Structures are given as structure tokens and as C-alpha cells.
Amino acid sequence: MTDFPTDDDSFRHGFVNVCVNDLGLDEATVSQLTGHERGKSIMMNVYRKDKLPSQLIEAIGRIKFDLPPINPFDQEAGLEALKHALERKSAASR
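Now predict its structure.
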């Protein structure tokens, strides 16, 4: 599959390109998978229903691309960072 950068915006662009160009998924499916507007017309935005999750499984199963290794989440460090962030937020609002 296509290799692309993993920052937020580039990831979304790469994901859409893989879905459309490599897998040939239709625009409505890609829009739903990315949480975007359903279509350009009132009919597609208002009246068309989203596909059911069971209908998306086949499309999702076809999406494959290499991601860099992800380190395990350190819960204690995460909670400590959250605690410090909340303390800074509280101090700043005083």
C-alpha cells in the first residue's frame, strides 16, 4: 500500500488516497469513514442514510498500510502528566 507521513493532516490525506485510489472505495463510504459531509447535494446530506457498521466491515478490512511502531502507553506517566496539566490550568485561572 501507499506509504505516507503520519502527522494528522497528512495521515487524513493519505488515508483518503488509499481508500479512493488503491481500493476504489466510493466517495460516500470514504466520507463516512472519515466523518466528513455525506455529499454535495441536499438529497445526499439530508435524506441519504449512512451505511450500517456491518456494511462497512468489508471496506475497513481492505484498508492496510504500514504504520511506524507504537510504544506501549505508560498509564502512570499519562496520569501524572494529566495531573500536572490540570494543576497548571488551575493555577493559570487564578
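The CA atoms of residues 31 and 37 lie 6 Å apart.
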